[in-house]
């Protein structure tokens, strides 16, 4: 057995060596899988074939689950990846443990300064004034509303003094819209909620759920990250608001409805299923990130093609039948007469001389077919610019309303990040790759493909043109807003978040008062934070004893 | 002596692959986990010895106590229910009935389904709006509860779901039932014992070693339950299905408090040992081995 093991070690299989001779190999691990991983791999390939070739670096890309744990364990073992793609929640936690390499000097060297990015993302990568991560794809959250449901309830909304053609702009308005839209049904002799206008704390949105108090002007922690501030009037208002939904709709009825929204006790939702509550109309409004557009297109594309004329919808489907080599007549039989170049559009410069290009409108897309010698030589279905696609959306996106007058465009700005583990052996080379992937063309490409946002302060016109989310402008404006906020600056945020989840659940179940629940969470969270910061137990940082 | 030493050496050499593996991958980690349980340790910084600090902290940690209560509550429901249902099914499947092999296969099949697939399946079955269980209840004019989002129903729902995997225990009971001597049933019948009498006086005593084995395995399994609640409820609502093993996992891999998690692991081990020991201690009164 020992001999067998030794033989396997000596002569057994080796990892495939793709790297050309003489290049420094660096390992890049990221959490993305499937199509998202493939899209990132394209950037890795682009680096290996261009900048990497020039500088003698080769990146091995490995897609994996539980990236945070694997990165931490491998860092502790001294064999980490050179670049790891983590979530924002780990930046402070890992930086405080010394697991991450400070990146200030590297970032300066490559021009990745604070002004290069939307400030909220750059700031979210700092811990005690030192930069420990570089934002990759980022997101903000907004209010999604279903225009069709608003139209169905137009008369009642108008009777209540509300405009059915727009989203609510304040929390008070949100409550009013929700109350009008709530729909009840009878089943099995009981009264059941069939649809809600809006309910807070939805499955699949745990981080946004735990910062719901941002829209009430609350600070969950002090800026230094040394004090938890859960008992402020703003926090009280936020969780009392959640409680109000159970009081208005009934604890049992709402529990049953919420349970139906998720495939588990409330954490894992139906988001990525055809039963997605927003898509099937159980929710008229919900809080979501820019990525929701990708799921709408995947699970219910008709919501992106509302009121598109039937012939254009059919044309979009028939586009798949256009094949290279077809004649113009054949294509016209399939797609209709089309518009010739004299119809008023400019032929792109890359179309060969002598070629003819025809255009067909197809709802949210435009179809272009190029003919050379009367035969199809190329075909393309191009999305209309994002802003133009909004007119066809059955849904809309707007800033999530704030409860505080004057506090506008509030959002939680979350992000995926790239880090260099402290025990990496190729830090400079790792930063070369991060800088390449952070280039505007690359980062906008991967952000669009992932249906997320660009972290950069300035976006290109093409980005807005091609982004799959028709409301990318709304989400980008929110991310750039001065009221966009990262996760609380706490090194033990996962624990604090769990406690806030309990407060929200207690609020929904009407267990204890809001003040009692928040006070209990405050004591426990401050104690845990002190433990994480190595501050004497049961004291605040100013030395005062925490009330028990 | 030399010969004996040589033989011992040879024996150890043959044992060494297992022995080295056991020491390096089991014994050493167990020892280290105890040492880490006496330290503040986050994986990256060197462990800092704090004596019994983690254990003292655990004693004052209300989430730990809640998780412990939940674990015992689940064990108290799932363990007897699992034993009774599996034993009952085994006895039914031991009777000569048409299609017996098919029934046995049907009962055993769910235990072959991977845990994650079972959990997802049950999530759908228990969904209060779309799930088959509540739809059937509604047809009988019984309003089904929000199984996994009501703290009162979430734990019974998990215990109910645990019965899905009794197939393994049923097979073991069936094997045990084949070993019960027919003469004992005949003797009991001659003595005037009815069906219940034969079950009580023959089947159960003869099957008691198997029951004992399944009991011990079930105690260990129930106290370490993790995957099903982790997938189905994530411990909610309001931590009503948050088990010791989940709190241990969160402390180790989410909060990165390896020392604290280590202390929890040792307390879990002690609980499992104590309950298993209790089962062994009581076994002398109710477990009967053939030929003794």
Describe the overall structure.
- The complex is a heterodimer of chains A (548) and B (292).
- Chain A has helices at 2-11, 34-49, 51-55, 67-77, 89-96, 104-109, 119-124, 147-152, 154-159, 171-181, 206-210, 233-249, 251-261, 277-280, 292-299, 310-318, 328-335, 386-389, 427-437, 440-449, 461-466, 472-480, 493-508, 514-533; strands at residues 24-30, 57-63, 83-87, 126-127, 130-131, 134-146, 183-187, 190-195, 285-289, 356-362, 365-372, 375-383, 395-398, 411-419, 484-485.
- In chain A, the strands form four sheets. In chain A, strands 1, 2, 3, 6, 9, 13, 14 and 15 form an eight-stranded mixed β-sheet that branches. A three-stranded antiparallel β-sheet of chain A has the order 10-11-12. In chain A, strands 4-5 form a two-stranded antiparallel ribbon.
- By secondary structure, chain A is of the alpha+beta class.
- The model of chain A is unreliable at 263-267 (pLDDT under 50).
- Chain A folds into three domains: 17-132 and 413-472, D-Maltodextrin-Binding Protein, domain 2 (3-Layer(aba) Sandwich); 141-222 and 230-303 and 393-410, D-Maltodextrin-Binding Protein, domain 2 (3-Layer(aba) Sandwich); 310-387, Beta-lactamase Inhibitory Protein, Chain:B, domain 1, CATH 3.30.1450.
- Chain B has a single domain (61-286), classed as MetI-like (MetI-like fold).
- In chain B, strands 1-2 form a two-stranded antiparallel ribbon.
- The longest helix of chain B is centred in the first third of the chain and has 35 residues, at 2-36.
């Amino acid at each position: 057995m020992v001999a067998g093991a030794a033989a396997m070690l000596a002569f057994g299989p080796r990892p495939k060596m793709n790297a050309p001779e003489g290049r420094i190999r660096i390992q890049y691990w990221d959490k993305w899988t499937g199509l998202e991983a493939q899209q990132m791999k394209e950037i890795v390939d682009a680096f290996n074939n261009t900048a990497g070739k020039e500088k003698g670096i080769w990146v091995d890309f490995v897609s994996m689950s539980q990236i945070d744990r694997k990165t931490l364990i491998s860092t502790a073992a001294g064999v980490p990846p050179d670049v790891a793609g983590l979530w924002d929640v780990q930046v402070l936690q890992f930086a405080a443990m010394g697991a991450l390499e400070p990146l200030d000097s590297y970032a300066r060297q490559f021009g990745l300064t604070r002004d290069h990015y939307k400030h909220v993302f750059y700031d979210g990568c700092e811990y005690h004034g030192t930069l420990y991560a570089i934002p990759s794809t980022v997101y903000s959250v907004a209010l999604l509303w279903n225009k069709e449901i608003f139209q169905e309830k137009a008369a009642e909304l108008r009777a209540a003094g509300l405009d059915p053609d727009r989203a609510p702009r304040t929390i008070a308005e949100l409550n009013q819209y929700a109350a009008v839209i709530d729909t009840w049904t009878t089943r099995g002799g009981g009264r059941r909620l069939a649809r809600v206008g809006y309910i807070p704390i939805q499955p699949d949105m745990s981080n946004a759920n735990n910062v719901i108090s941002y829209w009430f002007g609350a600070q969950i922690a002090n800026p230094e990250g040394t004090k938890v501030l859960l008992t402020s009037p703003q926090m009280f208002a936020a969780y009392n608001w959640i409680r109000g939904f159970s009081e208005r709709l009934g604890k049992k009825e709402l529990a049953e409805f919420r349970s139906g929204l998720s495939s588990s006790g409330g954490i894992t939702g139906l988001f990525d299923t055809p039963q997605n509550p927003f898509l099937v109309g159980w929710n008229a409004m919900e809080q979501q990130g820019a990525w929701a557009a990708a799921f709408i297109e995947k699970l219910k594309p008709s919501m992106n093609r509302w009121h598109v004329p039937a012939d254009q919808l059919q044309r979009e489907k028939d586009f798949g039948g256009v094949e290279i080599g077809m004649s113009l007549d054949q294509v016209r039989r399939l797609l209709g007469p089309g518009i010739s170049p004299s119809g008023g559009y400019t032929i792109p410069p890359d179309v060969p001389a002598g070629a003819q290009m025809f255009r067909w409108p197809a709802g949210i897309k435009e179809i272009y077919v190029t003919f050379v010698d009367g035969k199809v030589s190329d075909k393309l279905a191009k999305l209309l610019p994002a802003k133009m696609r909004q007119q066809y959306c059955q849904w809309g996106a707007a800033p999530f309303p704030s409860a505080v007058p004057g506090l506008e465009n509030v959002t939680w700005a979350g992000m995926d990040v790239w880090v260099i583990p402290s025990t990496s052996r190729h830090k400079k080379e790792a930063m070369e790759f991060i800088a390449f992937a952070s280039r505007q063309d690359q980062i906008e490409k991967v952000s669009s493909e992932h249906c997320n946002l660009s972290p950069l302060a300035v976006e290109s016109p093409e980005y807005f043109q091609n982004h799959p989310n028709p409301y990318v402008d709304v989400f980008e404006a929110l991310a750039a807003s001065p009221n966009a906020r990262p996760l609380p600056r706490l090194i033990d945020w996962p624990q604090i978040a769990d406690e806030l989840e309990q407060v929200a659940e207690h609020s929904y179940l009407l267990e204890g008062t809001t003040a009692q629940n928040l006070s209990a969470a405050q004591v426990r969270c401050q104690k845990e934070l002190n433990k994480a910061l190595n501050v004497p137990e049961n004291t605040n940082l100013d030395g005062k004893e925490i009330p028990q | 002596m030399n010969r004996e030493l040589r033989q011992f050496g040879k024996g150890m050499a043959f044992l060494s692959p297992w022995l080295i593996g056991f020491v390096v991958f089991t014994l050493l980690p167990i020892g280290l986990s105890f040492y880490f349980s006496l330290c503040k340790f986050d994986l990256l910084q060197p462990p800092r010895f704090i004596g019994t600090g983690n254990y003292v902290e655990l004693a004052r940690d209300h989430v730990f106590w809640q998780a412990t209560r939940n674990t015992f509550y689940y064990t108290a429901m799932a363990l007897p229910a699992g034993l009774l249902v599996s034993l009952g099914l085994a006895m039914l499947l031991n009777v000569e009935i048409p299609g017996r092999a098919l029934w046995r296969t049907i009962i055993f099949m769910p235990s072959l389904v991977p845990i994650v697939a079972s959990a997802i399946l049950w999530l759908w079955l228990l969904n209060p709006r779309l799930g088959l269980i509540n739809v059937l209840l509604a047809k009988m004019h019984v309003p089904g509860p929000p199984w996994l989002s009501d703290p009162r129903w979430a734990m019974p729902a998990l215990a109910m779901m645990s019965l899905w995997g009794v197939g393994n225990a049923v097979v073991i009971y069936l094997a045990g039932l084949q070993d019960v001597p027919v003469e004992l049933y005949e003797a009991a019948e001659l003595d005037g014992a009815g069906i219940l009498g034969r079950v009580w006086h023959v089947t159960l005593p003869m099957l008691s070693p198997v029951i004992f084995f399944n009991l011990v395995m079930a105690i260990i399994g129930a106290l370490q339950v993790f995957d099903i609640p982790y997938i189905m409820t994530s411990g909610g609502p309001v931590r009503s299905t948050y088990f010791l093993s989940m709190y241990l996992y969160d402390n180790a891999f989410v909060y990165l408090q390896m020392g604290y998690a280590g202390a929890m692991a040792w307390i879990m081990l002690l609980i499992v040992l104590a309950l298993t020991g209790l089962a062994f201690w009581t076994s002398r009164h109710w477990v009967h081995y053939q030929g003794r």
